[in-house]
Each structure stands twice: as C-alpha cells, then as structure tokens.
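ok so i was messing around last nite and threw this chain in just to see what happens. nothing serious, just curious
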Amino acid sequence: MEEFQPVIVAFCCHYCAYTAADMAGSKRLHYPANVKIIRVPCTGKVSALHMMEALRKGADGVYVAGCLEGDCHFRTGNTRATKRVAYVKKLLDEIGIGGERVEMYAMSAGMGEVFARTASEFTEKIRRLGPNPARVGRDNPGCATAACS
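result:
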C-alpha cells in the first residue's frame, strides 16, 4: 500500500514567509512538493473562512506563515492571523476534525532553512494524522453528503 501523501496549503506572507520559501529554493533546500504555497500580502488578510475552505476543498492540513512578532510590515497583521488560527483550531476541535490540522508559524525573510524544516515537520505531522475527514469529493470514502456525488 502506498504511503499517504497529504495535501498541505501554506498561506505565506509576501514579505517574510514567501521570501523564506524562495530562499529555501535558492539554497536548494528540500521540502515536500505537496506543500502548496499561496502568497498573501499579509497574513492578517487570511480569514478563518480561507482556512476552512482550504480544508473543505481537499487540504489535509493548513498553515499560515508570517512575519516575526513585532516585524509585521502591516503592524499587527501577524497578531490578527495568530488569533484567527487559534479560533479555527478551536472550531476544528469542537466539530471533531482536529485543530492540529492548522498551525501558525513566524519567520523572517532570511530563514529559508526554517521554512524548509517547518514544511517538512508539518507534513509529517499531518501524515501521521491521516487524511482530512472533512474533505469533500469522490476520493473521500467517508463523505456521505450530496456534495460528494
């Protein structure tokens, strides 16, 4: 049987985390190809709905990666994102999907190694959790809603 390969969505701040991902690529640091990066102007623009919709549409895990605390280019965007991630984690725990499928990470533009390590560690964590039980689609045998057919 083939090992489960999770789909990970990473919402990355344009100024820090996305640049760290670019640096990881420039340094030829390896991280899982199943991490799909979505560049956002600021993590403060990532809403709870964005995270939930990524999970609904097939992501097995979602993380938001932004600037280090106190270094947000938009002053408080990363602190707003941290609160939203905490809210989504709590919500996922309450509905039985598991809040550990969502995380918030902070890094600076020069932290390519941290980006690669974070992507790898989060992917392994989600691999251990298994497929997202809330994913909608034909490939989800546990899905019993009309949206699955």
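not much to say yet. The chain has a mean pLDDT of 91.
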